[in-house]
Amino acid sequence: MMRSLFVRLLALIAVATAGLAAAQTAPPAARAQSAASAPQPRDANLQLVVMLSRHGVRSPIGARDLYGKYSAAPWPAWDVPSGYLTAHGYQLMKLFGAWDRTRFSNEKLLAPTGCADAARVSIVADSDQRTRETGKALAEGIFPGCLIAVAAQPEGTNDPLFRPIESGAVHPDAALTTAATLGRVGGSFNNLAEAYRSQLTLLDRVLAGCGHAPANVKRTSLFDIPDARSRVATAATIAENLLLEYTQGMSQADTGWGCLDGATLRTIMQVNNANWDYGMRTPAEARIVASTLLKRILETMQQSATGAAVPGALGKPGDRLVILVGHDTNIVTVAGALGIDWVLDGRVDDTPPGGALLFELWRPRDGGKPFVRLEYIAQTLEQMRNAEQLTAANPPAEAPIFVPGCGRADLSCTWEGFSAAVRAAIDPAYAGDPATVAAQGH
Question: Is this structure's pTM higher than 0.70?
Answer without folding.
Answer: yes
